[in-house]
What we know:
By secondary structure, the protein is an alpha+beta fold. The chain folds into two domains: about 5-80 and about 190-200, Glutaredoxin (3-Layer(aba) Sandwich), CATH 3.40.30.10; about 90-190, Glutathione S-transferase Yfyf (Class Pi), Chain A, domain 2. Helices cover about 50% and strands about 10% of the residues. It contains eight helices and four strands. A four-stranded mixed sheet has the order 2-1-3-4, covered by helices on one side. α3 (about 65-75) runs antiparallel to α4 (about 90-115).
Amino acid sequence: xxxxxxxxxxxxxxxxxxxxxxxxxxxxxxxxxxxxxxxxxxxxxxxxxxxxxxxxxxxxxxxxxxxxxxxxxxxxxxxxxxxxxxxxxxxxxxxxxxxxxxxxxxxxxxxxxxxxxxxxxxxxxxxxxxxxxxxxxxxxxxxxxxxxxxxxxxxxxxxxxxxxxxxxxxxxxxxxxxxxxxxxxxxxxxxxxxxxxxxxxxxxx
Length: 205
């Protein structure tokens, strides 16, 4: 089996993929990048990810970038972990929606609210519409629980859960009861505990 290599920095968005890898439970290697020293901008790393950012994942000869794409790829490549909704299952549409809602709607809405623009953009120009609508949509989706796809924990929960966990950690979104309960379920997962402990050790080193 081809080896998995995660190009990683802690803390960063690549921590999402470290959690995903721990959930899958297959061996992987780390290539650590010192972002403060600009190692993500070296020609060697730009050959891996021309955007000069993490995460990037190498699986044999395949290179995948962007957290949601990597999680989708891993869930499909290792179906034995039960983290995907397979092609042919009608639920896959909703599953894919949440995988891409995280980076395309949730993250921009949170960042725009944290760093307001000088001029208020027209709602129709923003892919996410407005912050309150995004929060309401996510709250309504996670409230029934335990996970976005009902009883099945999937890669979509890794993406959406990571966004909510990060945003609440830095008080960037309201700590709505639905969000607190949803994220609280993840804190009990051994895979997230392992990934978090390992990243904390890296950040402290």
